[in-house]
């Protein structure tokens, strides 16, 4: 079995008759930083929930030869599929090392966890180096910066040897420097793993995406490279409407971080898709 690709085919999710995801297909491979974008309510998080077993879905989500849909959440985790949430879920009162110990301990018997506390487990050491948190071993997670908390969450997935990392808005609320560091981190970890990023931050997407899928109202509107998606008339039509270039120009002053009510405004998404910087 090769676990080097995640192939989602004809994914459907309904909530009491409301179609949140209506036949979405995309794939993601090790060696690329894959992005899923779209305005609020497009169905991005629901896709991740379906892949990780949190939400019931039909269709298919295959990791290599293995079908993920229909499996229980913990079994999907054991297959190497990890995710982060929009709000970092680390233990604030524990140190960085203690958080990582707990993450690593899930896969090891108790005696092994005790041994790891005397020295640092090699998998933890690697994850610390990869995420740049080596100097923060003894820092309580609660006083880490917002960016460092997200990196700790990613480090927790790395020590669990996740083959697939599904990251829900990893740079929301981060400073520009933290965003750049996060993008570089994602490029490093994506060399050998499948990395799928859900994002509102179009500037971040433009800088770090290898390929992009644009969702709109639960369906795939467009997919391809950043350049292909930006040039796609369907994206322009849906996001620009009839206002065209005038709207783009008018929106060029809008910040590229799309959150809150602005994020659901098609014009805003369109303007930022086309590369205006902060
Ligand atoms: N548990 C649920 N019950 C009912 N409707 C839901 C549920 N979860 C999501 N939805 C609806 O499904 C649609 C897709 O939601 P989803 O959170 O996947 O969008 P999104 O693209 O991730 O948006 P955002 O960028 O705001 O996080 C929305 O209309 C949302 O209100």
UniProtKB/TrEMBL annotation:
<keyword id="KW-0067">ATP-binding</keyword>
<protein>
    <submittedName>
        <fullName>Urea ABC transporter ATP-binding protein</fullName>
    </submittedName>
</protein>
<dbReference type="Pfam" id="PF00005">
    <property type="entry name" value="ABC_tran"/>
</dbReference>
<keyword id="KW-0547">Nucleotide-binding</keyword>
<dbReference type="InterPro" id="IPR003593">
    <property type="entry name" value="AAA+_ATPase"/>
</dbReference>
<dbReference type="Pfam" id="PF12399">
    <property type="entry name" value="BCA_ABC_TP_C"/>
</dbReference>
<dbReference type="InterPro" id="IPR051120">
    <property type="entry name" value="ABC_AA/LPS_Transport"/>
</dbReference>
<dbReference type="InterPro" id="IPR032823">
    <property type="entry name" value="BCA_ABC_TP_C"/>
</dbReference>
<dbReference type="GO" id="GO:0005886">
    <property type="term" value="C:plasma membrane"/>
</dbReference>
<dbReference type="GO" id="GO:0005524">
    <property type="term" value="F:ATP binding"/>
</dbReference>
<dbReference type="InterPro" id="IPR027417">
    <property type="entry name" value="P-loop_NTPase"/>
</dbReference>
<dbReference type="InterPro" id="IPR003439">
    <property type="entry name" value="ABC_transporter-like_ATP-bd"/>
</dbReference>
<dbReference type="InterPro" id="IPR017781">
    <property type="entry name" value="ABC_transptr_urea_ATP-bd_UrtD"/>
</dbReference>
<feature type="domain" description="ABC transporter">
    <location>
        <begin position="6"/>
        <end position="242"/>
    </location>
</feature>
<dbReference type="GO" id="GO:0016887">
    <property type="term" value="F:ATP hydrolysis activity"/>
</dbReference>
<keyword id="KW-0813">Transport</keyword>
């Amino acid at each position: 079995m090769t676990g080097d690709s995640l192939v989602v085919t004809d994914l459907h999710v309904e909530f009491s008759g409301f179609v949140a995801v209506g036949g979405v297909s995309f794939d993601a491979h090790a060696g690329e930083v894959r992005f899923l974008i779209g305005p609020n309510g497009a169905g991005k998080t629901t896709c991740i929930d379906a892949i990780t077993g949190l939400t019931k879905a039909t269709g298919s989500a295959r990791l290599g030869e293995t079908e993920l849909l229909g499996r229980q959440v913990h079994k999907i985790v054991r297959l190497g599929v990890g995710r982060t949430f929009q709000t970092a879920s680390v233990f604030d009162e524990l140190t960085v090392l203690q958080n990582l110990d707990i993450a690593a301990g899930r896969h090891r018997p108790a005696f092994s966890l005790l041994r790891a506390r005397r020295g640092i487990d090699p998998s933890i050491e690697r994850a610390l180096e990869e995420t740049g948190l080596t100097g923060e071993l003894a820092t309580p997670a609660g006083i880490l910066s917002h960016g460092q908390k997200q990196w700790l969450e990613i480090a927790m997935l790395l020590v669990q040897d996740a083959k697939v990392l599904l990251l829900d808005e990893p740079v929301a609320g981060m400073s520009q420097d933290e965003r750049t560091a996060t993008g570089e981190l994602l490029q490093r970890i994506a060399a050998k793993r499948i990395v799928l990023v859900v994002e509102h931050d179009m500037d971040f997407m433009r800088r770090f995406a290898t390929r992009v899928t644009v969702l709109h109202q639960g369906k795939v509107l467009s997919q391809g490279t950043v350049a292909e998606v930006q040039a796609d008339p369907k994206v322009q039509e849906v996001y620009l409407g009839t206002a065209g270039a005038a709207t783009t120009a008018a929106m060029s002053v809008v910040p590229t971080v799309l959150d809150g009510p602005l994020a659901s405004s098609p014009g805003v998404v369109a303007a930022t898709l086309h590369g205006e910087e902060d």
